[in-house]
Structure formats: C-alpha cells, structure tokens
Amino acid sequence: MRPVNTHAGLLAEFLRLRIDESGKTLAVLSQQVGYSTSQLSTHLSGRVPPQRLVVGLIAATVPPALRERREAEAVRLLRDAQHPPRTPARPIPPVVPVVPVVPGQDSAVSLAQAQAQQLQVYERLTRALEQEGELRQAAENSARLVWVLLGMVNTLEDRVRKLTGERDQLAANMDGGELDAARRRVGRAEEQKATAESELARAREKQRQAEELADRLRQEIEALTDDLDRLRGDGTSPHDHLPTRATPSTGPGDQRDAEADDIDAALARATAVNDQDADTIDRISTELTGTPAPVPEAPLLVPDNPLTSPDTANKSAARLKEEAEAAAEREDAPEAARLYGTLAAVSTAYFGSDHRNVLLIRGNHAYWVDEAGDPAGARDLFATLITDCTRILGPDHPDTLISRHNHASSTGKAGDPARARDLHTGLIKDRTRVLDADHPDTLISRHEHAYFTGKAGDPGRARDLHAGIIEARTRALGPHHPHTLTSRHEHAYCTGKAGDPTRARDLHAGILKDRTRALGPHHEDTLHSHRQFDYWTREAAGA
C-alpha cells in the first residue's frame, strides 16, 4: 500500500526506524499498544495513524532518555500527515475575465495569463475525473461485494439450520462419535456466518463513503468545467481531450454459489476487497480534505439478525459480550458457548487473530464448549489456542499456561486420561518453575494430574499423589479450605479403589465431620461425603 501522502510516508518511515532500533517484533508490540499486527502493518505502510498509536509506539520502542524528543518529532510528523500542505494545483484559482486580444502592448501578457489559468484548471479537472473514476469503481466493488455477501449469509443461515437439525437428530439417537463431529460443523458454520455478516457491514460502509466522496467530486468537476469553458473562449483546448470516466455497470455481477468447502476462501477474498477499497477511499479523502476517511467510533455492529427483518437494530459487540457473560454467570453452557463463538469470530475479523482480547474470548469459547458437553471440540480449540498464545505471549505467560491446563483436562474428559495425565505432568514442571511449588495454580495442576492418574487405571499411585497434595494445600491454604477438603475426598476415594475400603470408610468419616463443620450439613459437598461414607461402609462390611 502506498502512503496516503508524502508526510504520512515520512511518519511511517520514522516509526519503522524506531521499531528496528528496538529489536521488537510486531507481535510483541501489538500487545503493548493494543493494536493487532495487521493494523500495525497497515499504519506502518503509510496510512495516517491515530495519535494514541503513535505515542504508544514511541513509548514501547524508544529508551526513556530519548523518548520525549522522539515523541515530539513523531507528533509533528503526524500533524503534517493529518494536514498536508496543499499543492499549488489544488485550489481553484479565481476566474479572471477573458481579456479580448486587441492590438497593443498588453495583449501578449493577457493571453499568457489566460492560457496559464486554463492549463491550471485543466490539470485539476483531469485529476478530479481520475479520482471520481477510482471512487466509482470502489463503490461498484463494494456494491458487488454486498450482493455476494448477502447471498453467502443466506446460504450460511440455511447451512446452520440444516446442520443444527442433523446435530439434534444425532443427539436424540445418542450417537456420540457422529454427534461430536456434527457439533464442530455447526460451530464452524456459525463462525463463518458471523464473519460474513461483519464483512457485509464493512462493504456497506465503504460503498457509502465512496459514493459521498464521488458526489462531492462531481460538483467540483462541474464547476471546473464551467471555469474552463469560460477561459477557453472560442479556441481549442486540452479540455477537448479530457479522459472520460467509464460508466459503472448497473448489475451486481454474476452470482456465485459458494460450496461449503469454499466458504473460507470466499470470505478471505471479501476481506481483501474491503481492505483494498478502504485504502483507495482513505488516499483520495486525504487528497481532498487533508485527513483520511473517518472511522466510525460506534461499537462494532454484529449483524446477527435475520436479513428478512433489517429494521431490527443490530447488537453491538459490547452487548454481545454482556449476553455471553450473563449466560456464563447463570451457567447456561450451550448459550455461553454459542455467544462466545460468535463473538470470537467477529472479534477476529475486526481486530485480527493476534489481538490479546481475541485470545481471551477464544479461551472463554473453548471453556464453555467443554462445559456444554463437547470436551473433544474444546480440546481441539484449546490446542490451536495454545499454539497462538505461545507464539504471541510466550510459553511462560499465565494465559498460555491456563490454556495448557484446560487442554489437558478436556483431553481427559474426551476419553484419554493417560494423555491428560502426561500433559499435566509437563505443566506441573513449568508452573513450578514459573510460579512456585505451592502456588494455587500449581496445586490445581497437581490435583488434576493425580485425578487422571487414577482414571488411567492406577488408583494406588493416585492415592499417594493426593496425599502429597493434601500436605501442600494444608500448608498453603489451611486444613479447612474447600480445596484441601476436596483433596482429602479424592485421597479417600482412591484409597478405596486401591483395595482398602475400611481405610476409605474411616477417611470419609473424618472428611464428613470437617465438611459439616466448615460448610454446613446441607451443603452439596457435605452430602456427597455422606454418600461416599455410606458406600465405603457397605464395601468394608462386605470385604
């Protein structure tokens, strides 16, 4: 992308030099300044950035001793980029009445003056016609894209309905393996639909901006044409050979029915067209007004309403986030998974996949997919998230470690406890190194490791691991903390499974007493201990 003006190019070069001097990557900077790597690349290629980004980049890349001076230089360059000096050809010169050519000493001067004015207006008119042509083409591209995306959204709505029906039928038939695959297909189709709706909103906005600028240019072209005609008089002029603007086609183009496996590629092409038109509009807007086309400050719209009811107000991303959090608060796992999935798709399309907030939303989506009863789907989502968190945040970042923990647990719940045990083994080592042996997160990993060790068929080993966790949690949290009591419960259970029901009965008797005192006689955990005590009492009597 070429700079929108010379001063924007100088600012981009200045900022790139500061980044090169710092040695930081765009992935690292995106976390420090709050912009995705794709947004940084765009602004560093010559688009006029907001002042917040300029100041943030200077703070992130320049040593404190030089920061104030560099920031002043950057702000000065930004001001020049936002308000570039107009070139001599930009203003329309005042029209001077044509002086008839009569014999005399002033006739040559008057003729030269008229010809100079005529040439100046001609150059401005030529450029205005070229700009109008570019804007009409951008508007036509956006109109075609709107038409294609409308068809794509309708197709995806039908696809979601069809796949949802297939999923519900499999759920009724209790077909576990096929049901997991059907859930993943539904999730993917919903994410594709959200992305298509986001690009549709962008295309409509670009079409509106291009048409407004083109209409403004048309008025200027008409005024310039009148001025040039007055300056010409009856003689010939370069105006006779002005370029003509191609008339845009009236139809939206040939329809393409995208197949299911081509949807992602089609969405990528739509994004590329939107990006290209945005660059054209920003460049011409800067040439006309000195500033890029304004970016709406309103929250990102999520056009998730049926296209048959366009008068219904769309939800903002903030509203969608509130609904997802509310569903999570009331523990409505299927609804939370659906809402976070939609929010993840829209946020990725708007901010880019490397944005910190997008990573957090993706983590919430995967968690609630697990809670909704699809641990295999959650496992796969967490696996991808771990790769991205490791690349963007680093292997020791808390969010990366949390993603690894959830991935291991989902793996166990999906039916592979041995693999989950091994994943937790590696995580314990890293959390102990990064956090501490007695850190609550490390102790949770140790608990999960012991749990899946038992599930993998080694209750004796699990019993011993839980005994060590009881000591650590008693030391770190206290003997009556709910986590400590949970470890004692698991230890007693594994003791019984390892072949000692009498010892398991006695351990559960002590846990029941302590839970009754700490939690009350009617707490769910207390009642669970009651049931376990009764069970192992019967097992011990029959041994």
From TrEMBL:
Compositional bias ranges of the Basic and acidic residues kind: 228-243
Pfam families: TPR_10 (PF13374)
Source superkingdom: Bacteria
Ranges that cross the membrane: none
Region of interest called Disordered, as start-end residue ranges on this chain: 181-208, 228-258, 287-314
Protein name per Swiss-Prot or TrEMBL: Tetratricopeptide repeat protein
Taxonomic classification: Bacteria, Bacillati, Actinomycetota, Actinomycetes, Kitasatosporales
